[in-house]
Amino acid sequence: MTNIVVIGMGYVGIPMAALLADVEGFQVTGIQRKSKRSGWKIDWLNSGKNPFEGDEPGLDDLIARVVKNNKFQVTHKYKICDEADYILIDVQTPVDDKKVPRYESLKEVSKKISKHMKKGVTIIIESTVAPGTTDNIVQPILEKGSGLKRGSDFFLVFSFERVMPGKLLEYITDFPRVIGGGCEEANEKAKFLYGKVVKKELQVTDTLTAELTKCIENTYRDVNIAFANEMALVTESFNRNIFEIIELINHRHDRMMHYPGSGVGGHCLTKDPWLLMYGLETYTPNKYTPKILPESRRLNDFMPEHVIELMESAIKEAGGIMDNLRIALFGVSYKANTDDTRNTPTERIISILKQRYHSHNIEYIAHDHYVKVKDYSATELTDDIKVAAKDSDILIFATNHKEYYDLDLEELKRIMKTPIIIDGRNIFKKQQVEEKGFIYRKVGEGTEKS
Fold first, then answer.
1. Which of 80, 143, 146, 149 is nearest to 117 (CA)?
2. Model-level pTM greater than 0.90?
3. What is the sign, positive or negative, of the torsion defined by CA atoms of 351, 356, 357, 358?
4. What is the pLDDT of residue 449?
5. Which of left, alpha, beta for 332 (phi over 0: left; psi -120 to 50: alpha)?
6. Is there a contact between 141 and 111 (Cβ–Cβ < 8 Å)?
7. Is residue 247 over pLDDT 70?
8. How many structural domains comprise the chain?
9. Which CATH number goes with the domain that contains 35?
């Protein structure tokens, strides 16, 4: 029997633990911090329930099956690591206000693991970290606390996750896996583990290259989204529609331009460029200063503010009165059809509005089918579209949940006080909405009649 411990029961740890637990000969234990915010997951998972509210194909049945078969359990006690053959670390590494990695969780977990390591154990970091972190932060903590040496007494690997809410299982099993161990034996042990669940190629490299690959992969996407967002602003100035232009560009088989929107959210793209820059500054002698990366981050962070600029333009058209407004925000998760609110643009929109118009009498309400009230505190939240829209002056669509594409616009207009729609995700067609009597603004489309 191969004993596996997965530390961190979140969007990475849960699907990985469940997939491994479904393998014959594997016994998996998850470790979750017993806190007021997330400690409930222990009992929830141990009863065979999926804690995620969004659409996650296959995950409900998988968790129920491995728990029923006594192949997976969750605890808060690290003593279970004493007999572990593999320990996977899946804890978050956010950045602070100065864009410096916050390694508290990673360091704490590493220290606890170091007291419960048997000889020959393989420890795999799946969380995204700044390049250089595995060798310079995690390895010394493990060696000091255990008295063991990497490469001879234990093995340490960086093998990053590529999960995406809404496709958690698919992105683990159907994407290639990069493995960055410190020696050949470490790589072979990691290949044995991932080979049981990953259907695609297992790509072996060194630890630092693997860390760089993860950060650069997400930074590449962030930069491309920033380009799309900037072209949306450019196209608005020309009074044209960026989505039509993207369609024309992408008609070429060798082009795939990204789409703009109300902002970039989630745990990865909002921090990984900063992790890359931090590693560059901390662990390289030349200390090259990136140019495109920070500007792309700032541009993407600006998009929620641009949504508010569009709202202000619409209000001006409607008469320019900022008092006694009711603003409804549709979609508080950062990604469509999921319950993931990490770094959601909606929260940034609400924060800017409350700060900018704190002296005005403005009421805020948010709507989401997937995010539960207990998990959201930015403003009042409902899962009823009519409750959110009733007597509202402005509807801001910040997330493109599938339910929003088939809304009855006539019904919305009837129950609203002022018919204004701000579209941050290309949900509606301008002509269709304006024909229904709405004042309409969309990220990436001009306001004048062309």
1. 146
2. yes
3. positive
4. 59
5. alpha
6. yes
7. yes
8. 1
9. 3.40.50.720
- In this structure, is residue 157 part of a structural domain? yes
Catalytic residue status for 81: no
Residue pLDDT, tens place only, 252-261: 999 999 999 9
Is the pLDDT score of 375 beyond 90? no
Q: Exposed, middle or buried by CB within 10 Å (0-12, 13-18, 19+), for 248?
A: exposed
Q: Is residue 285 part of a domain?
A: no
- pLDDT tens digits, one per residue of 215-232: 999 999 999 999 999 999
Q: Is 119 a catalytic residue?
A: no
Query: Average pLDDT over the chain, rounded to whole?
Result: 95
376 in a structural domain = no
Q: How many of the other CB atoms lie within 10 Å of CB of 285? A: 4
Contact 169, 62 (CB under 8 A): yes
For the beta sheet containing 86-89, the strands, ordered from the edge strand earlier in sequence to the opposite edge, are: 72-75, 26-31, 2-7, 86-89, 122-125, 155-158, 177-181, 202-205
- The whole-angstrom separation of Cα 263 and Cα 150 is 42
Residues near 358 by beta carbon (within 8 Å), at least 6 away in sequence: none
- For the CA atoms of the chain, what is the radius of gyration? 24
- CA–CA separation, 229 and 223 (whole Å): 10
In this structure, is residue 339 part of a structural domain?
Answer: no
**Which residue segment(s) compose the domain that 38 sits in?**
2-205
Residue 141 sits at φ, ψ, to 5 deg, of: -65, -45
Tokens matching residue 45: 């998972």
Contact present, 397 and 422 (Cβ < 8 Å): yes
Catalytically annotated residue among 41, 71, 191, 214: 214
Residue-wise pLDDT for 325-346, tens only, equals: 999 999 999 999 999 998 999 9
| Pairing state between β 394-397 and 72-75 | unpaired
Q: Which two tokens stand for residue 363?
A: 């009421």
Q: Which residue of the set 189, 268, 430, 442 is catalytic? A: 268
**Is the model's pLDDT at 36 over the cut of 90?**
no
pLDDT confidence tier of residue 40, bands split at 50, 70 and 90: confident
Cα separation, 374 vs 414, whole angstroms: 31
Q: How deeply is 118 buried, as exposed, middle or buried, from its count of CB atoms within 10 A (0-12, 13-18, 19+)?
A: middle
The one-letter code for the residue type at 18 is: A
How confident is residue 450, by pLDDT bands cut at 50, 70 and 90?
very low
In the numeric block, which tokens belong to residue 320? 């320019």
